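Model it.
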Amino acid sequence: MYVPARRWGGRSLLLLLVPLALLLSTLWAGTVRAADNVAAADNAAAARAAADPILDPMPEPAQSGLGLVLEEYAQFPKTEPVPGPVTDPRLMRHARINALVELPDHTGRKAVPDLNGQLYLVEDGKEPQLYLDLAGTFGPRFFASRGMGQGFGYVTFDPGFRKNGRFYTVHTEAASATTAVPDFRQAASSTYHGVITEWTAKDPSAATFEGTRREVLRIGFNGQVHGIQQIDFNPTARPGHRDYGLLYAAVGDGGTGKSNAEPQTLSLPHGKILRIDPRGTDGINGRYGIPASNPFVGEPGALGEIYAYGMRDPHRFSWDSGRGHTMYLGHIGEHAIEAVYEVRAGDNLGWSEREGAFAFDRNATNPCHRILPLPADDEKYGYTYPVAAYDHNPPPGWNCTADVGRAIAGGFVYRGVEAPELRGKYLFDDLVDGRVFFTESDAMRRGQEPARINQLMIYDTSGKRTTMPELAGDKRVDLRFGQDARGELYLLAKANGKIWKVVGTKRFADCRTNGAELNRVMGGGNWAPVTPAKWQFPGREAILAEAGAARPGPRRPFEYAVLTKGPAFGSVTIEGEVRLDTPVSVSNRDVIIVFGHQSDTKFYYAHLSQDNTIYPHNGIFVVDDADRLRLDHQWNGAKGAPPAVTDEAWHEVKVVHCAESGEIAVYVDGARDPLMTAVDKTLPGGRTGFGSFDNTGRLRELEVRGTPLR
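Modeled.
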C-alpha cells in the first residue's frame, strides 16, 4: 500500500504515530479476515466433497422470433498492439474497439476507445477522428501486447464535461517499465498496473485534445487478465443526488481469484466494484475521495472505496434509466456460468466460493467437477445471485480444461424510440461468438429464479437474415454493446473494427400467408397416404394407426399422408393439433409435419420428438432427392431445440414457411417465439402432410392458409 512521502517536523511525526498505529491495526484486521475467508473456503470445499458435480447447470437460451436490424455506422482504422511482440492470436484484431459512449455536451459526438491506445470521436455520417493518442502520451509504459483486456480499456466523461472539460480513462502499464508505485497491489508482486487518469480539455468542443492530465488511482495486478474493465458515472443521477459525480470502477481479480480468497478480502480492491469521488482528497493517495455513503466506510479492515465485492471479471455495467435506475452487471465466469447481476451497495457475488448460483470447488481433483449444488445452509452466507445466466454449453468432445470461448458482455436496458419492441428488455451478448440476447427487465428479480434468456436474430437493412460472425467476417467476433444519450444501441466488433447501429427490429418468418385457406379437411378423401392400410380417417382426425417401415430411396420419414384438397402453397401457415400415440416408455418417439411437398423424394418436414440429442430428431429437414438434411439453427452438433413432445397429450403446432425469404419457423403450444427456425430456399413450396418415421400418432383441427403456388 502506497503512502505519499511528506515532510514531517517533530510534533508532526508524533501526530503521525497514532494514525499509523490505527492503519497497521486495520491492515492486521484485514489480514485476519482474509485468513478466516481462506479457512472458511477450505472447510466449505471439504463439506462439498461428497456432493455430485453439475455438468449442465443452465438451460440453453431460447430462440426468439425477434431480430435486430443493423445498419453499419462506422469503420475504424487498423491498429496494432504495443509495444509487441504479440503471440496471442486473440489480440490480432483489425481494431480493438471495445466501447461507445456519447459525450454529455449535446453535440452528438461519440467516443470510442481502442485497446491499442487510441481514442476516437465519431459523429453520425462522418469518419472517426483521432481525439487522443494514449499510447503515444504514456510512451513505453503503455502496455497492450498480452492479456485480453490490456491497453486502453475504457473512457467516461464527467457529467459536467461541457463546461469543465473533464473525462477519465483507464489503461495498463508494465510494472517493469515504470517507477510508479501502485496505491494498491495484490499479495504477490505486481507485473501490471491499471491506471485511472483524469484529463481536462482546454476547449471541450475541440476536435482533438489539448489540455492537462493527472493520475487518480493506480492498482497493481500480478496477472495479465481481469484488470480494471470499466469506469463510469451513473448517468441516471442528477445534480444533488448522492451518486452524482461519483466514479465507479469494475476491478477484476487479476486472474488469480480462483486460487485465493482475494475477491472476498475487503482489505484489497481486487474482484470488486469501487466507487470514488474523483474530485475528493481523502483517498489513500490524496487524489480522490471516498464517499461517506459507501457501504464499508468505517469498517475495520475494509477499504472504504468498495461498493460491492466477490467478483471474478466484472466486465460491463450499466444503469436502467427506467424502473428504479437499477444497476446491472455482466460478469464473466470461470468454469461454466456467464451471469447478469442486479448490483446494490454491499453486495457479495460470492466468487470464488460461488460461480453464479452454484458452489464452486476450486480444489476439485477433477477439473470437470467444479460446479456443485449449493449447501443446505447457504442462506447464512448472504451471497447475491444472478438475475439471469447461461452456461457454456460446450460442443461435442470438449475437454473441460480447455477454453470453450464463452464470455458475457453486459449491455443495457433499452429505453430508446427506434425499436419499440425492445423497450424494457435488457440486451447483452456473448463477446466471443457474437450471439445477442435479451431478458425482460421486469423478470430479472433478486431472490427469484433467473429470468429466461432469449437469443435475438440479426438482420441487415435489406431484411436479410445474417449473424454477427458473418457481419464481422470472423468466427471470433469480440463483440460489445454501446449506447448513445438517447438510449439507442450500437454493436462493436474488434474482428473487423466496425460499429453497427440498431435501427429497428424484425420478426422472423413474418410473411403474408392469406391468399387462400383450407379447413375442415380431415375426411379420408382429402388425403393420399404412402401406405393407406396404416391410416384411419374417422372424420375429425387423421390417424396413423400402424408404424411405418423404411422404404427404398433417400433416408426420409417412413410413413406420411399428403393433403390433396386445395392448391399447393408457396408461403404458408400450417396450424393443427398433434398427439403421439406411441407410449412414452418408448424412446425416440416422433411425428412430423410435411410442407413444400412436391414428390416422395422432394419435401420439407418439421420433426417433433421427445428426443433432441441425435441428428434426425426434433429439427427442420429437407429431402431433395437425397438423404434428409438438417436445416435448423438450434442444432449444435450434439443437441437441438428443447423436445417438442414428451407425453401423450394433444399439442398445438404451427409451421410457417416464407417461400421468398426461405424462412421456416415451428411453434409449439401457442408460444410467441419459435421452437425451431431455419432458412432454406431449396423448394419454393408444395403440399402439406402429416406422419412419422416409425411411430403412431394423430392430427386434428388442421388449418392451412397461404399463397397458392404458381
